[in-house]
């Protein structure tokens, strides 16, 4: 039985949406990384010539010429492109140049098409991909970041300025297919400090900060009388861990860091910490 074009396309979208863990109908026409969180780097080697440079409050990837790299998340293309991996051709390719893989590179990541179910050992699962993989894209073999983000430079852009960050995305009249471009941000691998089990780290305002297991920022500071700051509670039986110790000076046990009281803020940036508080960082 032959599938008509519409059925084949819908099957491709369904397969790719299932692989991405997202429903095609719910995907926004939005950008990486402003609207879709990007995972921390895994520490694997960068492609030849790729570097990380500071740009404003963020760190971004650049190519060998210093031009800022941009990410196009294929998951945002499911409603517009039968094969999102080959989306950027024709008019798109006049404005955006794929970050080409070296000559002789072999594609090592691929996405399901139609009702395809057979596993192919030559290609890795994009959900388990390292930072940098190669795909057969519309402009030839190109680099993909984190399994989903096609990587490009903007045609005519100067080396350092991110004049394409959010390109065409802030213009309500811009075509929907042009509202996805943002600089490819670099999030460093998370530190692994010695800390109690209730403490983790979160990337806050360009650097890692301590947070609780619910992602709420931890901070310190002088809590004045009638202060409503909430201390980070500690178990009575805990003996502490390195710079983290338990104080019994208050009404209930609480954690201290480097001898300072620790308070629980909220998930998000520095704006979640009250006036007079200082975010705790590893």
SSE topology sketch:
Layout: H1 5-20, E1 51-55, E2 58-62, E3 70-73, H2 90-95, E4 96-98, E5 132-137, E6 140-145, E7 149-154, E8 182-183, E9 199-204, E10 207-212, E11 218-220, E12 230-231, E13 244-247, E14 254-257, E15 260-261, E16 263-264, E17 278-279
Antiparallel strand pairs: 1-2, 3-7, 3-8, 4-7, 5-6, 6-7, 9-10, 11-16, 11-17, 12-16, 13-14, 14-15
Give a quick precis of the structure:
The chain is mainly beta and 282 residues long. The chain has helices at 5-20, 90-95, and strands at 51-55, 58-62, 70-73, 96-98, 132-137, 140-145, 149-154, 182-183, 199-204, 207-212, 218-220, 230-231, 244-247, 254-257, 260-261, 263-264, 278-279. The strands form five sheets. Strands 3, 4, 5, 6, 7 and 8 form a six-stranded antiparallel beta sheet that branches.
Describe the overall structure.
With 282 residues, the chain is mainly beta. The protein has two helices and 17 strands. It has helices at residues 5-20, 90-95, and strands at residues 51-55, 58-62, 70-73, 96-98, 132-137, 140-145, 149-154, 182-183, 199-204, 207-212, 218-220, 230-231, 244-247, 254-257, 260-261, 263-264, 278-279. Strand 5 (132-137) and strand 6 form a beta hairpin.
């Amino acid at each position: 039985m032959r599938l008509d074009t519409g059925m084949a396309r819908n099957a491709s979208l369904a397969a790719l949406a299932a692989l991405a863990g997202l429903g095609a109908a719910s995907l926004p026409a939005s950008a990486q990384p402003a609207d879709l969180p990007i995972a921390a780097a895994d520490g694997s080697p960068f492609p030849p010539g790729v570097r990380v440079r500071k740009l404003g409050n963020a760190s971004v990837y650049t190519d060998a010429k210093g031009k800022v790299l941009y990410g196009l998340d294929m998951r945002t293309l499911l409603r517009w492109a039968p094969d999102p991996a080959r989306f950027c051709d024709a008019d798109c390719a006049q404005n955006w140049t794929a970050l080409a893989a070296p000559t002789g590179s072999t594609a090592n990541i691929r996405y399901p098409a139609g009702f395809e179910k057979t596993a192919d050992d030559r290609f890795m699962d994009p959900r388990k991909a390292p930072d940098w993989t190669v795909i057969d894209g519309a402009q030839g073999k190109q680099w993909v970041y984190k399994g989903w983000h096609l990587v490009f430079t903007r045609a005519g852009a100067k080396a350092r300025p991110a004049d394409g960050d959010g390109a065409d995305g802030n213009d309500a009249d811009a075509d929907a297919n042009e509202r996805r471009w943002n600089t490819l941000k670099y999030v460093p691998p998370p530190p692994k400090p010695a800390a109690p089990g209730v403490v983790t780290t979160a990337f806050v305002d360009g650097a890692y900060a301590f947070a609780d297991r619910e992602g709420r920022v931890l901070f310190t500071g002088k809590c004045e009388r009638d202060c409503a700051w909430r201390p980070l509670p500690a178990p009575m039986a805990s003996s502490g861990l390195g710079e983290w110790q338990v104080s019994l000076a208050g009404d209930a046990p609480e954690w201290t860091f480097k001898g300072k009281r620790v308070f629980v803020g909220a998930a998000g940036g520095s704006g979640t910490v009250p006036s007079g508080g200082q975010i705790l960082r590893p």
